[in-house]
């Protein structure tokens, strides 16, 4: 059945049968090209058109949803009948977005139906959809999105990935092989010196022109290592790189993250904005880092830039979630956001931060979902809180969702150290802390503050349990840190379950007389190693006693 209304262009019924047969379209697809609002990237989406039912163009998730339109928008309908596809303008009563005028090949379609031919351009507001007869091309392959749209699998370049005929590629691979042992051993200063040596060698050989990509790669490495080692010339080096390569998006992202660490929110926001403007769509890692870095910089700028005043002991937060909000662009952005915050040290030194997911926030506003996050400083025993809001799956840009998913998959494979810093804390608010401290234990631990952070570990043996209380300079990675009456205690992650419900008790007398009350094992003595100063004092006391004994023996004789 032909769609209702009058046909405003050629009709299948008034042409010879042979001509009609020549234009039979059993397969067709729509191609949507537009500039993505979030980062101004040029995007192409593809959708195969069904022949068994009509397809609505608008905001519905099951139809051809145009990014940014409300879910109830219905602008036009594509139908299949008599081996042809037809475009029909939606009636005024059904159209929830009349500010999107409809045109075919620049000719307004105010009413009725028009037959579509191969290559026709359908304009709907700021969007242009191109109708194509046949099946979508398989090169590049199409990636499924959460909607009907599919995204062509553009080759996602890694930073500074070079063409096969570019000599920089071989030099970069050689450099990474030479630097890998230093990186694994966290000798970042050695990596920086290696990069600077290579830069001088390339300059002496008069090869900067042919090895331009390699030089930019070395500069980016140099900036990252300066940030990790907190070098004195860190700020000056950042400014120099910005002057040398003002249009390199990958290097600009590194500069912006360095500026986050310097707490220069205005400069960071401008740098990330410029990185988005000059970046290429294919270099999706730098583009998304720049997009999220801009969000972080603007958020900190709006708050006056002071995050330290918001820190509280984790137990001191309670149920208080009246905290600042971060508004993101799509689901999945939150992990990439914390990654930028982590490397920019927005909430403190990177090595002592953990990022905890604390569940969903009820009552999302304007179709936005929300999550609760707590950023914990395990060394200081304090935490920051944020609520993260992002458009729901049905409202977010489908191409953005696919790219974010690809980025997160890459992180899980190639940046596993970062993924270990993400912790699910949804059960912590309901569960009791692993241990409780009695008043005596709190007083005793306060007297030992100069010795480091108290850390409990539990060793289960066939003969019983053995507990140990150490005082390392800082909690170890992965430790569970509890705070009670301003006293922090770290617990080895593997021992948290075994210590659940236990109480740490200190008996009057010697400062090392700690005991642990375990629910199913009773009282267990806690071994407390002597501090070096105490060992020296005990040695001195033993020496004095020996001298007194010798004097007594001498006098007795």
Write structural notes for this entry.
- The protein has 557 residues and is of the alpha+beta class.
- It folds into four domains: 17-152, Tumour Suppressor Smad4; 154-306, Tetratricopeptide repeat domain (Serine Threonine Protein Phosphatase 5, Tetratricopeptide repeat); 309-431, no CATH class; 435-533, HesB-like domain (Hypothetical Protein Aq_1857, Chain: A).
- The chain is built from 14 helices and 27 strands.
- The chain has an eight-stranded mixed β-sheet with strand order 20-25-26-27-22-21-24-23. A six-stranded antiparallel β-sheet has the order 2-1-11-10-7-8, with no helix packed on it. Strands 14, 15, 16, 17, 18 and 19 form a six-stranded mixed β-sheet that branches.
- A hairpin with a 2-residue loop joins strand 7 (102-104) and strand 8 (107-108).
- The radius of gyration is 32 Å and the shape is globular.
- Residues 1-22 and 532-536 have low confidence and may be disordered.
């Amino acid at each position: 059945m032909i769609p209702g209304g009058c046909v405003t262009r050629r009709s299948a019924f008034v042409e010879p049968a042979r001509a009609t047969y020549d234009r039979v379209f059993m397969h067709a697809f729509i191609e949507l090209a537009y500039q993505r609002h979030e980062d101004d990237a040029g995007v192409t989406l593809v959708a195969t058109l069904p022949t068994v039912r009509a397809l609505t163009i608008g905001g519905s998730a099951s139809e051809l949803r145009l990014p940014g339109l409300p879910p109830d928008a219905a602008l036009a309908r594509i139908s299949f009948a008599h081996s042809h596809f037809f475009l029909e303008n939606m009636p005024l009563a059904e159209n929830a977005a009349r500010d999107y005028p409809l045109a075919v090949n620049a000719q307004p379609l105010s009413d009725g139906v028009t037959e579509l031919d191969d290559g026709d351009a359908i304009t709907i507001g700021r969007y242009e959809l191109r109708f194509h007869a046949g099946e979508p091309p398989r090169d590049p392959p199409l990636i499924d999105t959460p909607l009907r749209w599919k995204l062509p699998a553009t080759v996602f370049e890694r930073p500074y990935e070079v063409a096969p005929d570019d000599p920089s590629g071989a030099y970069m691979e050689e450099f990474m092989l030479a630097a890998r042992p230093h990186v694994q051993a966290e000798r970042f200063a050695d990596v920086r010196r290696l990069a600077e040596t290579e830069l001088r060698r390339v300059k002496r050989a008069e090869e900067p022109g042919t090895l331009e990509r390699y030089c930019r790669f070395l500069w980016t490495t140099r900036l990252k290592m300066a940030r990790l080692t907190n070098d004195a010339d860190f700020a000056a080096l950042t400014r120099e790189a910005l002057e040398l390569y003002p249009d390199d998006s990958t290097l600009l992202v590194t500069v912006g993250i360095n500026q986050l660490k310097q707490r220069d929110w205005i400069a960071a926001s401008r740098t990330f904005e410029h990185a988005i403007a000059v970046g290429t769509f294919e270099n999706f890692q730098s583009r998304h880092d720049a997009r999220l870095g801009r969000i972080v910089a603007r958020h900190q700028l709006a708050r006056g830039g002071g995050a330290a005043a918001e820190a509280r002991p984790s137990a001191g937060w309670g149920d208080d979630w009246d905290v600042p909000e971060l508004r993101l662009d799509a689901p999945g952005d939150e992990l990439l956001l914390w990654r930028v915050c982590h490397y920019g040290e927005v909430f403190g030194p990177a090595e002592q931060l953990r990022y905890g997911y604390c569940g969903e926030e009820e009552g999302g506003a304007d179709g936005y979902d929300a999550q609760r996050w707590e950023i914990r400083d395990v060394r200081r025993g304090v935490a920051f809180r944020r609520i993260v809001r992002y458009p729901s799956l049905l409202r977010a840009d489908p191409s953005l969702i696919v790219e974010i998913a690809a980025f997160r998959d890459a992180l899980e494979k190639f940046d596993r150290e970062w993924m270990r810093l993400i912790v699910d804390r949804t059960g912590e608010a309901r569960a009791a802390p692993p241990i409780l401290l009695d008043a005596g234990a709190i007083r005793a631990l306060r007297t030992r503050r100069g010795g480091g952070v108290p850390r409990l570990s539990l060793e289960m043996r066939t003969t019983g349990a053995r507990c140990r209380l150490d005082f390392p300079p800082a909690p170890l990675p992965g430790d569970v840190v509890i705070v009670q009456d301003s006293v922090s205690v770290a617990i080895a992650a593997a021992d948290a379950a075994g210590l659940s419900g236990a109480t740490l008790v200190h008996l009057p007398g010697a400062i090392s007389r700690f005991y642990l009350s375990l629910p199913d094992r009773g009282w267990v003595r806690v071994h407390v190693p002597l501090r070096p100063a105490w060992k020296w004092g005990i040695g001195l006391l033993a020496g004095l006693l020996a001298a007194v004994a010798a004097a007594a023996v001498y006098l007795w004789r």
